[in-house]
Amino acid sequence: MLHRKQSTSDTGTRSRRFPLPTGVVRTVSSITGLGWGLAVVGVIGTLVGWFTQIPEILIPGVAALTLVLVALLGSLGHSPITVDLEVATDRVQVGEEVPGRLVITNRLSRWVRGGLIRLRVDDRVSELWAPRMTPQARHEEPFIVMTSARGVITVGPALAVRGDTFGMVRRVHHQSSSVDVYVHPATTRVPAAAVGFIKDIEGLPTADLSSSDVSFRGLRDYVAGDDRRNIHWRTTARTGRLMIRQFEETRRAHLMVILDAAAQSWATAEEFELGVSVAASLARAAQTESIMVSMYSQHGRHNASTVTAALDAMTTVTTIDQAKPVVETIYRATAEAPQASVVLLVTGATTEISTLHHAMTALPSTMTVASVRCCQGAQAAVRTIGQFKILDVPELAVLGLTMHRALR
Prior knowledge:
The chain is an alpha/beta fold. It has helices at residues 2-17, 19-29, 33-52, 55-74, 192-200, 233-239, 269-288, 307-316, 326-336, 353-361, 399-407, and strands at residues 81-87, 91-93, 97-106, 116-121, 124-129, 138-146, 151-163, 170-175, 179-184, 205-210, 215-221, 243-250, 254-259, 292-297, 300-302, 342-348, 368-374, 381-385, 388-393. The strands form four sheets. A seven-stranded mixed sheet has the order 15-14-13-16-17-19-18, sandwiched between helices. Strands 2, 4, 5, 7, 8 and 9 form a six-stranded mixed sheet that branches. Helix 3 (33-52) runs antiparallel to helix 4 (55-74). The chain is elongated, with a radius of gyration of 34 Å.
């Protein structure tokens, strides 16, 4: 950022110090390849016709140079129109359309001729001609951006370009802002019954002791630093020693979704897209039920504080060619979020069952653990290895039913 600001400042300094050369360079740079080609032909024709005194060569050469000069002069000055870019939404699901519009305004109190408008969408550029406009008129040009894959699409900027009809000169006079559109992964509705198992453990006591909670366990001798509000005075009076209440920590619903981002865990790119959709669907379903969610992958921790944040995080996640084993991600995730009550590991079909079992045994015994393997072309299945569940999900549509079968 610092380098970019310095570069802008230097450019502005040069423009103020040498305004004519800078303006000339900007004007000459607006000549297109067609314009330069016609100019070269005109120069050659004019010179050859002049020295040979052949009118049939001289006249076309002069005409070609005149056309380029007139087009260049017509591009000078400020653009009489402004272009504003508007999109209906900046977040859609993959496969949906993004409607938008260009608002073209004539700023002058006179008629203006039509002009070329260029709209950039990522690396693609679309062109349209604005109509001839009355004084202070406003024209709206609708457009639609199609989405075929998840990711972030940059819509804009829209450019108002002055030039001739033949395309010999193109000069940008106005530039609108751009908008980043998040194309979320496809998700499916997971029935409440499929995530209800998380709620079922809400409020259950654990073996961890605490000095303040809701599940009473017993009494113990007072130790300096204990909260005196927890002193049990009746027992203290009977025994003659200060006795303090002791509680058991209770479990609160907290879902942890771990997406295996190792490239070797997935057979195809489409299978990884299914895994991303599964992870996003699980997070969305849990948050709909007011369950806290944490999301991890080999990339690190993803923001899953809200449904939108979780979907945004899954929009840009990618596979990693030389990723660390998912077991290390599990270790880090459980260390950062030890309060998680349910852990769901999402991985691909090439991940061995033994690897999954090893990964899941690395989790604390206080957590409910299951793994979802995305296996395109296979049959939906649920298998139990030890105390762990492994779900084979061939497509997104059967995710809710498979989870309901496995975790009911």
